[in-house]
């Protein structure tokens, strides 16, 4: 049986007592000459009815303007545009894969070896391009364009190649895919 002495009762009372607040509460603060207020609920919603398109032509024009602005804003650096680009997968296929169907390759992107990235940069030259490629992103800077593109798969930058098509003014990147489980697919 536990014996309750006056000393243990005092310690038990200390444990059960509510702690003193260490932070000043609203009523404890001194009043100052500054008034704190909020205008959060008072901000009017800016819905301009005149900007709403009235017919399909105005809607298409508005969409085109917004797309152009997004192209400019998407670059985010010095008003340079984001160039148009396309991504395609490339797979090395032999006669065994096509006709005999002996290989383990499938038509899916999991059996592809390369990622082909074509970036159209009209008005630029190869000398003006600054290209940086790492395992997860491609960054291109020029006087007119800026693109920072995250890649859908990891790549091996050491085995990747870049070329410039002067007629089309297009940068072509052949990026060697480096996926963790490639040994399973091949």
Describe this protein's structure.
By secondary structure, this protein is of the alpha+beta class. The protein has a domain at 79-185: Immunoglobulin-like. Helix content is 22%, strand content 25%. The chain contains 4 helices and 7 strands. A 4-stranded antiparallel beta sheet has the order 1-2-7-6, with no helix packed on it. Strand 6 (155-165) and strand 7 form a beta hairpin. The longest helix is centred in the middle third of the chain and has 20 residues, at 56-75. The radius of gyration is 32 Å and the shape is extended. 10% of the residues are buried. The mean pLDDT is 77.
Task: Give me a quick take on this structure.
This protein is an alpha+beta fold and 186 residues long. The protein has a domain at 79-185: Immunoglobulin-like. It is 22% helix and 25% strand.
């Amino acid at each position: 049986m536990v014996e309750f002495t006056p000393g243990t009762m005092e310690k038990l009372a200390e444990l059960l007592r509510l702690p003193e607040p260490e932070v000043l509460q609203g009523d404890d603060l001194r009043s100052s000459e500054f008034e704190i207020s909020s205008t959060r609920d008072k901000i009017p919603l800016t819905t301009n009815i005149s900007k709403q398109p009235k017919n399909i032509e105005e809607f298409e024009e508005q969409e085109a303007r917004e797309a152009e602005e997004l192209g400019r804003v998407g670059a985010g650096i010095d008003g340079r545009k984001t160039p148009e680009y396309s991504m395609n997968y490339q797979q090395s296929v032999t006669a065994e894969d096509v006709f005999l169907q002996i290989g383990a390759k499938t038509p899916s992107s999991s059996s592809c070896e390369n990622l082909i990235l074509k970036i159209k940069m009209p008005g630029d030259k190869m000398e003006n391009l600054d290209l940086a490629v790492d395992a997860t992103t491609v960054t291109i800077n020029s006087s007119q364009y800026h693109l920072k593109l995250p890649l859908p798969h990891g790549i091996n930058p050491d085995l990747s190649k870049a070329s410039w098509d002067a007629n089309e003014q297009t940068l072509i990147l052949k990026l060697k895919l480096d996926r963790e489980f490639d040994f399973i697919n091949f």
